[in-house]
Known about the structure:
Elements: H1 2-32, H2 37-45, H3 50-59, H4 66-78, E1 84-85, E2 90-91, H5 92-126, H6 132-145, H7 149-163, H8 181-218, H9 222-229, H10 234-271, H11 277-286, H12 290-318, H13 320-328
Antiparallel strand pairs: 1-2
Helix pairs in contact: 1-12, 1-13, 5-6, 5-8, 5-10, 6-8, 7-8, 7-10, 8-10, 9-10, 10-11, 10-12, 11-12, 12-13
Amino acid sequence: MKRALLLLRRRIISSIPVLLIVVIFSFFLLESASGDAVDAYLGSIGGGDAALIRSLRESYGLDQSVLARLWLYLSSLARLDLGWSVAFNRPVRDLIVERLPNTLLLMGSATALSFGLGSALGILAGTKPGSLRDRFLSIGSLIIYAIPSFWLGLVLSILFSVKLRWLPIAGIETIASGKTGLSRVLDVAEHLALPVGALAFIYLALFLRIMRSGMAEACKLDFVLFARAKGLSRSRIVLRHVARNALLPLVTMLGLQSAAMLGGSVVIESVFAIPGFGRLAQEAVNGRDAPLLMGIIVTSAVLVICVNFIVDLVYAALDPRIGASEGRA
């Protein structure tokens, strides 16, 4: 427990400057883009006179200098105030709190499915490298990984929603259904079946190939021969010794892929019309809503950092040497 706390404290301290760099870089990157929320608003209403433009820019704080706006944003961020959305005319924090759970549910389900199934299939393939089973799973995973997620989502939607009519075609749940309790849980599960499947299958193939490679390499190490010499059963050697060592690169890749899965949810949410975090980012870009887009970037950075915190703790549990080195540092 002490090792985990030391590791967590060190990671939190090191993540603060990283988050600050992300915020400042993203702020100046958005400032360098042409147009702003006032331009988008004027375009939607067919233009306006100079007085209206000046009034809007003053009300949105766009008449101040870049450094003044940056300092104001950092001061607000320190108070956990993400600003005001120009496009939605609502606080950015309320929008994120409203949309983020849908994306976390989508990503969490897809990650659990891809990681669990990919690890299991990788163990099956890696225990007998070069076998017919290994070749079939390796070639199949390569084919799946080459398929674009949006295309797979469209195919699944056409097959299971349009043709077979087994599952809902879009949304996170039935609108105004009035369902509660278990009925609502089942309704949400039906709506998430296709988007979770489309997002999970792509990363399942990646986790399968990494686990397969790790298993094949670990089986060649001396401790496997020692375990066999002790008379341990094959299943115990594979699950308790080989698979544990092969999980290390897989857990590392899980942390690295957390940002990629968050970006992939943008496409899946658009295909299946899920009101989530990804679609909110798309709407912020279309409306040139810089405060909302900054809030989304900051929240995404915090999510990625939190996922890597969890990955570091799991990694330390799998490899005690990491915790020991952190404790001596």
